[in-house]
């Protein structure tokens, strides 16, 4: 039986992977930028959500397994932080495939940004079709996150693992979106 090769996690001298940026300062700045990108998406999503959570969504028929609204903010905060760290772990390597992996990460980040206004802000304008648009976006998001996990994993096992709770939550959120589209 052949032993499974461990991902290099960006260790200096490991074949196919070298750390990007030589100083702690450049590493810290890059981490700050990745976390900042996640925070920006979170903030923009929060703007799209804020006026609607206590508006139409408060009166909407939500899934019986939907958690209280107060759960979403803390969960998303942790998930966005994990996403940012995961992307940074991949970025900091010069591993083969890192550029492709980060492109997938960017795609899922854009889909994440699109979902919230589609689901929350478009509903007062379009009604139920907005929820179906949101569902299409969140399914595409789940696929993009799954691809990101698969691309991150061989570069950094830690990065791949950090993305798994996010993938699980997006699949869960997809079920909530589907319920809303079917019942509102």
Structural class: mainly alpha
Mean residue pLDDT: 88
Cα separation of the termini: 54 Å
Overall radius of gyration? 18 Å
Q: Profile the largest sheet.
A: none
Strand content: under 5%
- DSSP summary: helix tally: 7
Unreliable sequence segments: 1-17
Describe this structure in words.
The structure is a single chain. The chain is an all-alpha fold and 184 residues long. It contains 7 helices and no strands. It starts with 23 loop residues before the first helix and ends with a helix. The N terminus is likely disordered.
Q: How would you summarize what this structure contains?
A:
This protein has helices spanning 24-53, 56-59, 69-91, 98-121, 123-126, 128-155, 157-183. By secondary structure, it is mostly helical.
What topology does this entry show?
Blueprint: H1 24-53, H2 56-59, H3 69-91, H4 98-121, H5 123-126, H6 128-155, H7 157-183
Structural key phrases:
elongated; mainly alpha; 184 residues; disordered N terminus
């Amino acid at each position: 039986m052949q032993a499974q090769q461990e991902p290099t996690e960006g260790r200096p001298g490991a074949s196919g992977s070298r750390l990007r940026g030589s100083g702690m300062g450049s590493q810290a700045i890059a981490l700050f930028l990745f976390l900042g990108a996640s925070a920006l998406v979170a903030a923009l999503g929060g703007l799209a959500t804020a006026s609607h959570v206590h508006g139409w969504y408060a009166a909407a028929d939500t899934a019986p397994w939907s958690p209280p609204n107060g759960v979403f903010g803390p969960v998303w905060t942790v998930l966005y932080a994990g996403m940012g760290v995961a992307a940074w772990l991949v970025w900091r390597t010069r591993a083969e495939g890192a550029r492709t992996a980060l492109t997938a990460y960017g795609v899922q980040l854009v889909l994440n940004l699109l979902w919230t206004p589609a689901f929350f802000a478009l509903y007062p304008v379009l009604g139920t079709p907005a929820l179906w648009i949101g569902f299409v976006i969140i399914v595409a998001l789940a696929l993009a996150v799954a691809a990101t996990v698969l691309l991150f994993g061989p570069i950094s096992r830690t990065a791949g693992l950090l993305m798994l709770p996010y993938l699980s939550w997006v699949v869960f959120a997809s079920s909530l979106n589907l319920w809303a589209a079917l019942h509102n």
